[in-house]
Model the fold of this input.
Amino acid sequence: MAILHVFDSPPPGANADWTMDQNWDDFTQAEHDIWDELVSRKAKMIASYASEAFVAGLGILELSKPGIPDFRELNPKLRAATGWEVVAVPGFIPNDAFFKHLSEKRFPVANFLRGADSLDYSEEPDMFHDLFGHLPMLTNPALADFLVNYGNAGLRAEAMGTTDFLARLYLYTVEFGLVIEHGRLRGYGAGLLSSLSETEHALTSPEVRRIYVDVPRVMRTQYHFDRFQEVYFAIDSFDELLRLTEETDFASVYARLEGLPPLEPGADCPQDIRCEAAC
Ligand SMILES: [Fe+2]
Done:
């Protein structure tokens, strides 16, 4: 699938804030069938590698039941869990709109589904990635609060021109993050759990560097767009992730990092604390 869902301004059917009606009744049976196939392909991996919090969220939201989730049914469950809701958007949306939605507890979900020819990999994040990948963690109160803080930090970063630093924090946590639960390493990132092979790589490969989250280190580290990451960042708990971001003055981190070259994706830093937990 090519990148098709990028727009300069809200397309017809979308509002000024980029939201649109989900138009759930317009989804075809073929699309519901693709959703069901995608869910069934993930089941074994989720059971083996996903964080308990992720699995709990899947249950709370009933995301594994047949058919594309209808936001009219989904939102009451999500609101009851953490006060968040999902909103449909046409695809990629600008940073300022994305950050504003997060800061106000709305998670934007691309309102299109990959085709039957892209079941294992979608070049652009679609509703399966956004709903099945991200939403379970939004039932976790600490991660949900982290994302509100992230949205507010994003609005400030936009004004300061420092969104590249902040984007790396999102990528290495919300997309590719690892968490230690009961002494075992598990995945909670949506991008990670989208791919069985990357999840196994991240959790089990001896060539991967797994280190504890350090906010300045994360913000300084570039990442790969087109292949598996070489470093993954682990947390002891979602409360710890929330606390780290609450206690860190991002503006002073940006100021410090602006005077330093970025770190390559595979960089090894002497101050890194290796995570020894096994999967
Ligand atoms: Fe994502």
In short: Residues 125, 129, 133-134, 175, 190-191 surround fe (ii) ion (CB under 6 Å). The chain has a mean pLDDT of 95.
